[in-house]
Amino acid sequence: MKKIALGVTSSVSIYKACEVLRGFQKKGFDVQVIMTPNAAQLISPRLFSALSGKKTAVDLFGDDDSDRIAHISLAEEISLLVIAPATANIIAKLASGVADDFLSTLYLAVRCPVLVAPAMNEAMYLHPQTQANILRLQTAGVELVLPEMGYLACKEEGWGRLVTPEKIIEHGLALLEKSESLKRRTVLVTAGPTREPLDPVRFLSNRSSGKMGYALAGEALRRGARVILVSGPTSLYPPPGAELRPVETAAAMAREVKKNLSRADVLIMAAAVADFRPADRSEQKVKKEEAPPALKLVPTEDILASLARPGGRSKKVIVGFAAETRDVIANASRKLREKKLDLIVANDVSREGIGFDSDFNQVVIIDKKGAVVESPIVSKREISRLVMDRVEVLLGRKK
Ligand code: CTP
Q1: Helix (DSSP H) and strand (DSSP E) numbers for the chain
Q2: What spacing in Å lies between the alpha carbon of 187 and ligand 1's midpoint?
Q3: Which residues contact 387 (CB under 8 A, 6 or more apart)?
Q4: What pTM was computed for the model?
Q5: Index of the ligand 1 atom closest to the CA of residue 344
Q6: Which of 108, 182, 278, 368 matches a 20 to 30 Å C-alpha distance to 136?
Q7: 88-96 and 128-139 helices, crossing angle to 10°
Q8: For ligand 1, atom 17, which residue shows the shortest CA distance?
Q9: Beta strand pairing status for 157-161 and 148-151?
Q10: Ligand 1, atom 18: nearest CA belongs to which residue?
């Protein structure tokens, strides 16, 4: 029997948590309830203990003095952590990594998917700080079932009402299913820029932040894949569980991709690989007075194109990206054909506020048959989901 944890915090909608608990039980799950100390002021933990058949955890240092550290062992046992209802306070704590009670500590210890269902007064929900915290959680890979508009405890109509228990259960089940959809698959992702050195201190590079590639790596991990992340220099932390292969130059990236390709089912080239590098690299720092009047550049190897040769990619799903400043669809479709890709994700990098270095993007996804899907402006996390959904369909066809 699979075990899940249900975190319950102090919103008036706490009574709906009983239905959430029952719903998961009916689907065959063993549920351990954790309440925050404030939630335990609203409803007795005994009610949840009676419903779940297990003692509800409230205190980080409970009366159990066994050798096992309760929140760590629970973290290892569960397949899903659901927090419903989630107050503005718990969301803020999770977003900033504060771990001062059982629930917030458990959150930091789990590796399974996390589902958060906020519930609060409209002003609190719409407060920029709460919205920023929610975005931060989403970026960290947490799934949210956002509240609805409706009648609130403060006797007002507004945004902030907890969604129905059925909706929470439905989301939880989908998340559990998805968390295994790429099990036993290996996804090779490249991310970030490359640096092409001129001398020991100077290089040519580009504005890629790596955020898109890291989001894709995170999404593949959440779906149960083994992830190899070949990354140019970025300021990001790799998603936990990804096997990081740091590289600097396009040549090093090409080597690392080829080394790992045979074990991969999917290659996603999200990196902004330099197309050219300085022809000469000085061993010593070039002095001001010695600066050449012009730089001689030579092309780098096109990694994707080099894999287009027969035999280089049997049964693999190959996804490219296209950074364009004009004629996005036409240019991306040409790259899809020339590089023999299964899918290309194109974006207009000349637009303000999306693309390079932003947390948001708007893309056009084109497949081999010429089908074009345009996304709205959404977070890179959302884009990574769209792309991985398409990858899963293609993997199914290539079985
Ligand atoms: N790419 C690659 N090796 C390179 C350059 C690019 O594998 N040396 C990959 C990128 O990772 C991306 C795709 O090719 O997935 C398209 O990259 P992009 O820079 O948009 O296109 P280019 O082919 O470099 O063409 P151009 O710069 O002329 O637009």
Answers
A1: 14, 21
A2: 19
A3: 216, 219, 268, 319, 343, 345, 365
A4: 0.84
A5: 15
A6: 182
A7: 50
A8: 322
A9: antiparallel
A10: 322
| Whether residue 303 has its Cβ less than 6 Å from ligand 1 | yes
Instruction: Give the Cα separation of 94 and 104 in Å (integer).
Output: 6
Distances from the Cα of 397 to the Cαs of 55, 57, 70, 337, in angstroms? 47, 45, 44, 19
What are the residue numbers of the active site?
154
C-alpha 206/C-alpha 312 separation (Å) is: 28
Query: Rounded to whole angstroms, how far apart are CA atoms 325 and 32?
Result: 52
For residues 2 and 25, the answer to whether their CB atoms sit within 8 Å is no
Pairing of strands 372-374, 114-118: unpaired
Q: Is 206 in the pocket of ligand 1 (CB under 6 A)?
A: no
82 CA → ligand 1 middle, Å: 41
The token pair that represents 264 in the structure block: 């991969």
Question: How close are the terminal C-alpha atoms of the chain, in Å?
Answer: 30
Nearest atom (ligand 1) to Cα of 301: 8
Q: Judge contact between 379 and 360, C-beta under 8 A.
A: yes
- Does the beta carbon of 321 lie inside 6 Å of ligand 1? yes
Between the CA of 305 and the centroid of ligand 1 the distance, in Å, is 9
Q: Residues 10-51: pLDDT tens digits?
A: 999 999 999 999 999 999 999 999 999 999 999 999 999 999
Q: What is the pLDDT of residues 324-371, one digit of tens each?
A: 989 999 999 999 999 999 999 998 888 877 777 788 899 999 999 989
